[in-house]
Fold each of these.
Amino acid sequence: MDALVEAIRAKQQLKSFGNADPATETQVESVLRQAVYGTVEYNRLVKHSDQVWAVAINQDANLIATASYDKTIKLWTLDGKLLSTLNGHQAGVYDIAISLDGNLIASASDDKTVKLWKRDSQGTFQARPDKTLKGHQAGVYGVAISPDSQMIASGSGDKTVKLWKADGTLITTLKDHSATVYGVAISPDGKTIASASGDKTVKLWGYNGTLLRTFQGHNDRVYNVAISPDGQTIASASGDKTVRLWRADGTLLNTLNGHSDRVYNVAISPDGQTIASASWDGTVNQWSWEGTLLTTLRGHQDLVYGVAITPDGKTIASASWDGTVRLWKPDGIILTRLRGHNDLVWAVAISPDGKTIASASWDQTVKLWNKDGSLQKTLTGHSARVSGIAISPDGEMIASASADNTIKLWHRNGSLLKTLTNHSSAVLAVVFSSDGEMMASASADKTIKLWKRDGTLINTLKGHSDRIDGVAFSKRCSAVLGVSPMSDCIKKDGTLIASASWDKTVKLWQPDGTLITTLKGHHDRVYSVAISPDGETIASASWDKTIKLWKRDGTLITTLNGHQAGVLAVVFSPDGNRIASASYDKTVKLWKQDGTLLTTLKGHSDGVLAVVFSPDGEMIASASGDNTVIIWNLDQVLDLDQLLIYGCNWIQDYLNTNSEVNDVCHP
């Protein structure tokens, strides 16, 4: 967010200068784009004077409570306005909880007490505590409130969990841990309590104090615990740098690895779909329920101790020893990120109506998504990496290419129609002809195979001396294959097939297997090839960091330079006026057809492996080694003034509540 503030400031200053140096304008534009695409933090709460240990959000998502080592609890609106400061503790406050009905707050402190704060008849929390729960013999690290607000659980350095009535009466003390109890949670039905301890265990207790079971498996202290909305899953955060997911019966479901230091806290979204973890490595990780790392939130300048998720699951709040609470929307400002694969995404396709995105991943699956980022379905069946994906022009069929040497044909509803097994090595790409009646596949067996839509093999094209990673059709012959002589078809309609190979060449073929010409000029492996809509220009993308544009007779038109690493994909827009390229330098570049660079899109955190235009040319989708697909709206990303507006709107709450920056968007 700091980068976004400074980028907006620089753009505003540039506007005030009038005619600025073009090089400076380009630099500012690049910085602003990168900041807008990459920013997921949208607000920051900065009024505490010491480390912030915990954060909680109420069920109505209109109140945030934060607990600090400055001995206070602060209450905020979700837009960052400070409502009040609750004083009363005599030492640092380690944890905070808000009741389900929003009328009670419980705080746990190093002063060995739990304090209860009630909302008055005007809806305001009293500045002084309503009750102080005394009984622990050491600092209290964790606190939780039952769903009916009638019971409070607390965990302490005295190795116990205490259960209290809301009136402050002690119900019972749970004594089975052999070290500090750092965290406690109460199940949604109020019948079970979970505790996390420095003895490396999680314990599950009945509400009457009976020990139900002990979860063992962590290799270091367990700092915190959360229970899923359905009460069936427990998440634990540990000093062994992991989050573990357990069934309530004690069965280990999954271990989430991704942090580089101790994990102190964990939260489960109210819809049960995502998990957030806070770590001493200064980051918050967001995970899918299956254990896929969705995103890492970076920005804190010290250890992160607290984490909470809003009821809609779209906002994460984190509390840090840097004295701040930060609010994040992991989906960012204008980018739609498709998260769910647990390995790199090598290929992406968009349906003819623009409503469905298909992604192919090395996790051996194909996923179908709505363009808003929601998952439609996952197609399973391949036994190795999936490297190619295509959707037929009528939108009814999906073809996937895999390192298991097969192509699978799927109905759009996800049912498997047929498996094509004629390749003798990994299949790396697949594409439909423009009329949908033919497919071409490229393989590490150095061949291209042509297929009828029903999976019948038509022809095998041989000539490359190394693996073939890319294949493309020009417009389809109007003549039906095999009915009229192919040479007549080529002469009439100009149909050709282009292939890109690690032998550093592009080859142009007739569908009958006749080699038309070989395009030589790249100095390294060629990964991708595209043919312009009018069939007159071929674009090739190479590991030599360039894109080359060729006439169909093999004449080199120009070379597009600008990428800082190998280029893995290239595609023409439907109108042929733009070219998009995807590179291992983590960027997508947009070019005019004459080779002029329009803009560079920076949003991925790893190499970009594939890119595709939507049929209407209004958006592009990019697939990356960061396991995600990003949907870019071209009207938004190409309009710099619009980007400035998006950036200002994104951080409006932060600007409004922090006087030192509130003039950034309105100098």
Amino acid sequence: MEGLVYGDQEINKRGGLIMSNNVSWICENDSVEITAISKGGDMFGIEFPRDYVECIMKNDGGYPRPNRFNLNGNEEVFNNLLSFDEEDSSNIMEAYNDVKDRLIRKVIPFAEDPFGNLICFDYRDSEQPIIVFWEHEKAFNDKESAMSYLCDSFTDLLSMLHESQE
């Protein structure tokens, strides 16, 4: 099987790594091309993590099942991945442009909850980003306090997902 090149990473077209954690995806768009992902990374001045690229290539704009995760004693919702499709209402560039005045530089959204909050890659300290949860209402007052550490990687985030406990 021929791999695709993204930055200095070779990506398997079937993305087997992501499928091993019992997360399924619904309502995803058609497959996204690696060139669209690479172009998006270039626009942000970053290189997206390999595990995310493998997932987004097959599940662009998709909704994960299960979709709940715990953060600071609360159950939160991973509603959907932001899309690289410019026509999608949850487009990654549009989402970023809507909130960039309230985001800290090098914090890049890649998913959203149903309430206007975002799940983001935080590249401030490393080329290998951590994952943070960004609360849009808090960001009006203090950009830094709007972000809460969630986990170390996209794969870690997917492994945190569970069914609703309510």
Amino acid sequence: MKQVYQGFFINKHTYSDTSLLLSFYSQSQGLQKFVFKGGRKKTALLPFGRYEIEATKKNGFDFAFVNNISNHTHYLSTQNHPLKNLIAFFICDVIYQSTPASHADSVTFETLCIVADDLNEATELYDFPLRFLNNWIMSLGICPQPVDRPTAFDIENGLFLSDIRTIYPANLDVITWNQSLKNEEVIDKKGVKPAINLIVKYIRFHIPNFKIEKTLYILQQTLLS
């Protein structure tokens, strides 16, 4: 039976000598995989690009087979901007590594639509990965609540700690992350990189097999250097 899906391209793996196994975050199914016959010889898909996938589900197969893929939305600025492309790769890696099976809901998909639009239109990029991570962990249901005067962050329990008795300020990673969750302007740009590292450490603690070291390293050596 043929069906049409709408989704963001997330990942690809080799399926055979000529075919690919494509992962999309679709509106109806969440993280979903398709077999694309002859896909290795066809036009490359853009990371975090929004596509329409016409596919057929066959009896006895776990994956639907692609009949046609077409652009749903053209993100021309992202497509032609090297740093935006890098951020798109990072976003895809985070989604692929942290999305639970059968994790699909309209709110999460709409969040990704907003992220894609914002990335395409963004002129300031230094804190975009930080803001994306905040949106994503909110979709996963593990986003901590910011506080007025954070002194530390409890990774195990997902809590910003605040103790008015202490005279010592929190580390820059804690302060920056807390500011971003309150939608405040990040005062010290030097805090973005350690804040992202803290969030990644937090996700890794709560989601098994979350490994984004390669894309995070590339991001740190370029945008966050």
Amino acid sequence: FQDIVQEDFIDSYNNLTIATIMMLKFVTHRCSHAQFIVKTDDDIYFNVPKLYLLLTSAKFPKEHYGLAGRLIRHGRVVKNPTQKWYTPEYMFNEDYYPNYLAGCGYLMSNKVAHTLYNVSLQMPLLHHEDVFITGICARAAGITPHHLMGMTNYFADVDICNSWYIVVHRFTPEKLLRLWKPIAQNKCNVTAATNSLRLISAATSVLFSSR
């Protein structure tokens, strides 16, 4: 389908930051028409219709369009070299990360994507993609990440016809196939979708927070 964008770097876990910067590069140069960009992992449940309903809701707080997801506050820097998320002091020498969004899935406006791309080219790289892009670069750009209810960085049981979740993390391919089966078989009715819209409209006052 010619829909895979490739760049010249090794596709590894520690290079996720580079991959995300390249995503921002592509958006900046090739997707100026897009209003929003969502970055996700490949092991997540992503409810696109629910996010669309949220973004188009009349009660949606428009000032929070910029950068939103599962907000991580006062995340302590891991300084133990035996742990997965170890951060050497030469890469980041503070005790706490800036507030940032969990990398399993986050939303940003096109303008924010453009800004974060330009800022990322001027910052020393950190291999923790979510911390670097939505925390360090966002802070340098004066952009505040906001918490969006419905985006999680952990596993949760999901009823796809009635769920208020937008992003849920840690699904196997087999679980994802089973999860989407009701949609493929047209088993989700209009009532469920209408109820979901009502839930979103009623909850928009608490959906977003910079805490």
